[in-house]
Amino acid sequence: VLRDGKWSEEDAAILVPGDIISIKLGDIIPADARLLEGDPLSVDQSALTGESLPVTKCATQEVFSGSTVKKGEIEAVVYATGVHTFFGKAAHLVDSTNQVGHFQKVLTAIGNFCICSIAVGIVVELVVMYPIQHRKYRDGIDNLLVLLIGGIPIAMPTVLSVTMAIGSHRLSQQGAITKRMTAIEEMAGMDVLCSDKTGTLTLNKLSVDKNLVEVFARGIDKDHVILLAARASRIENQDAIDAAIVGMLSDPKEARADINEVHFLPFNPVEKRTALTYVDSDGNWHRASKGAPEQILNLCNCRENVRRKANEVIDRFAERGLRSLGVAYQEVPEKSKDSLGAPWQFIGLLPLFDPPRHDSAETIRRALSLGVNVKMITGDQLAIGKETGRRLGMGTNMYPSSALLGEGSSISDVPIDELIEKADGFAGVFPEHKYEIVRRLQERKHICGMTGDGVNDAPALKRADIGIAVADATDAARSAADIVLTEPGLSVIISAVLTSRAIFQRMKNYTIYAVSITIRIVFGFMFIALIWKFDFAPFMVLIIAILNDGTIMTISKDRVKPSPLPDSWKLKEIFVTGIVLGSYMALMTVIFFWAANDTDFFSDKFGVRSLRNNPTEMMAALYLQVSIISQALIFVTRSRNWSFFERPGLLLLGAFFIAQIIATLIAVYAHWEFARIKGIGWGWAGVIWLYSLVTYIPLDLLKVAIRYILSGKAWDNLLENKTAFTTKKDYGREEREAKWASAQRSLHGLQASTSNNIVNENRSYRELSEIAEQAMRRAEVARLMEKNTLKGRVESVVRLKGYDTELNKDMR
Description:
Blueprint: E1 2-3, E2 6-7, E3 20-23, E4 32-35, E5 41-44, H1 46-49, E6 55-57, E7 62-63, E8 68-71, E9 74-80, H2 86-95, H3 102-132, H4 137-151, H5 156-173, E10 176-178, H6 182-188, E11 192-196, H7 197-201, E12 207-208, E13 214-215, H8 222-231, H9 240-247, E14 259-265, E15 273-280, E16 285-291, H10 293-300, H11 304-319, E17 323-331, E18 345-353, H12 360-369, E19 373-377, H13 382-392, E20 398-400, H14 402-405, H15 416-422, E21 425-427, H16 431-443, E22 448-452, H17 458-463, E23 466-469, H18 475-480, E24 483-485, H19 491-531, H20 538-552, H21 571-598, H22 601-606, H23 615-637, H24 650-669, E25 671-672, E26 677-678, H25 681-722, H26 734-747, H27 765-782, H28 789-801, H29 805-811
Parallel strand pairs: 11-19, 11-22, 19-21, 20-21, 22-23, 23-24
Antiparallel strand pairs: 1-2, 3-9, 4-7, 4-9, 5-6, 5-8, 10-24, 12-18, 13-18, 14-15, 15-16, 16-17, 17-18, 25-26
C-alpha cells in the first residue's frame, strides 16, 4: 500500500477507498479497485463471476476483491471495501435471507390440527360429563387423560427426526452431505433446479472440439493441425489454453517427440500469440505458432478468399460460443531462431470450449423424467450458454441478464415472472440476478433448488429451498448451501432426489397415520365414555401408545417406492385421509363395544362367554381391539395402492408382530386391579383378531377411494400450476400431433430420434401432447431471445450502477 509516499505491507482490513495498492502475480486482490496505467493484467475471477477463463484487465478497468492475479503487475486505486465490494454484496444477500422451511410449516399445521381435535373432545366431555351427567371428578380426569395420552402424537418429532437422520446417512454414502435435515424433505418436492454452468454442468476446463477443427492447408489433416498447435504450446507451467491443446494428444509427450526445441516465444498482449522454433530429426528447422486468429491471419498475409472463409468460420464459432484459435507454420531455412524464415502458412482454426461433464446430459434427461425442470444460470456469455444447453439437450431458449431488469419494449411481450418460468436459462448474470431468479420462481409456487460452486452463487444458494454446493465449491458456497456434494457433477443429485422422495414418502405415511390415530382415539373413546359411561384406564392407553410408537419407529427403514413426480405436503389429502380413516376406526371400535357389551352377538356366533356387566374383561377386549387395528393402520397408510400387494420392510413387519404378541398376551393373561383389567382368554382373543381383520379390509377401500376422488383435482392443479405448457382442453389433439411432438422432443434432447415406434408402451399420447404444447409455447417466446439485447444490456448496467435513468434520457 502506498501511504505518505512510501510502500508498505498492511493488512487488507485497514484498506480504505482511495488507497493505492500494488498487484502482482499470485496476489489475491484485497478490495475492489480500478487499475492505473501499466501493462494488462490477467485475472482469474471464476469464483466470483463464473467465467471459465482468466480475463485480461487493462488500465481504468475494475478488478474485484477475491480474484487471483495470473499474469502481470500493476498499480490500482481502491474504490470499495468490506460490504461494499462485489464479494461483500453477495455476502449481504446471504445474511439477509432467513426463510421458514416447508417442513416446519407442515409440522405446525399437523400439530395444530391434532391439538384442536383433542381440544374439541375435551370440551365436549367436560360439558357432558359434569353439568349433564354429573360424573365423579376422578372419572372425568381419567377420561381426559385418555384423550391427551392417546391423541397427542408424542412420537412425531422423534419418528420424523430419526427418519431424516437415517436418510441423511444414506445420502452421505451416495456423495451428498446434508447440512440441514429438512432439506431432504424439500428436495423430494423440488420441481425446478437452477444450475450454475461453469464447474457444475461443465468441467471448467478448456477443450478442443476435434470434429469442428477447420483445415486450411493441403495435405494436412485435423490431427496434424492439433499437433502443430501443441508444439506451439508450453509443456510445463501451462496456462488453460496450452493444457487444453496438449491434452488433445494421445500422449502429451508427442508435443516434443522427435524434435529439439530451439526457442519458445511466450504469449504477450501485443503479438497475442505463441511460437516455437524447433529442429526435426532430419536437421530441418521449423516454426509453429498459435494465437488470436486475427494476428495469425495477418502473420500469414493470406489471400482475400482465405481470409473471408476464415472469418466466416470464426463468426460461426462465435455464434455457438466457441473461442477460435489460429494455427500457422513456416520453415526456417536460415536455421536461426532470429531469422524471419519462409512465408508463414495458415494451417487451420481450432474451436475452444468448456466441455460438458460426461454425465451432465444423462443427468438432465433423468431429471426431466422425474419432473424436475433444469435451468442454466451462468455468468458466461449468452452464446456460450446456448451452446452448452444445445450439447446437453436442455434447450437453447436462453436470455441475457438484461431481460431480468429491462422495461418497456425490450421485454413487454412476456411478464418477467413468466419469462423466468419458461426460459431454459440466463447468461451474463450477477449474484443479484441469480438471487432474483430463485426468488421469483418461489413466488410462482415452485420448490426451487440451486447448485453452484462460487461466491457468486452463494446468495442464490441461501435463498433457494435446497441449496446444493457441488464438489470443489468455495467456502462461501459451502457455507450457504444445505447439501454439499462430494462427487463431481450433478449425477449425485438424481440419486439424492430419489432417496429424498423415499424418505419423504415414509414421513408422509407417518403423518397420515398420526392424524388418523388422533381422530380414532379422541372420538372413539369420547363416544364410549359419554354414551356408555365406560371409563377406559389411562394406563392401558399408555401401553397402546408405547407399543404403537415402538413399532412406528421402524418406518424409517421401511421399503417404499419413490414418487415418479415431485412430491409435496398435500395437507388436504393428509387431513381428509386421516379424518376418514380415523372416523371409520372409531366407528368400528364403538360398534365392537356395543356388540360385546350390550348384545350376545359374539357369544351366539362364536361360543365365547358374554362380557355383559363385566367391565374388567371388557377393558381387556377393548384394549386388544384398539391395539390391533391402530397398529395395522400403518400398513394402509404406507402403501399408495392396495396394502396387500406392497410388501413392507421386514423390520416393520417384525416389530408389528412382536408388539401384537405382547398386546395379545396382556389381553389374555393380565389381571391388574390398578388398571381395572382382567384377562379374556384365547377364545375372545381369536374373535377380536378376526373382527380386526374383517374391519381392516375396508380401510384399504376407503384409502383408494379417497385418493381417487382427490386425484382428479390434484391433477388439475398440477396442470395449472406446475405444467406451464399444456392445458386439459388440448388433450384431444394427441394422435394428430404425436409424430411432431416426438420430433420436438428429440430436438430438445429429451429422447433419441427414432423413425418408428413413435408411441410405445412407456410413452402415452397425452405425454406427447404435453411436449407438443411445450414446443409451441417456446416458439411463441423464442423471438424475444435476441430482441434489443444491446439496449437491454445497457439498461442492466445502468440499473446495477445506480445511475439516474431520467437524467440519461434528458441528456439524449
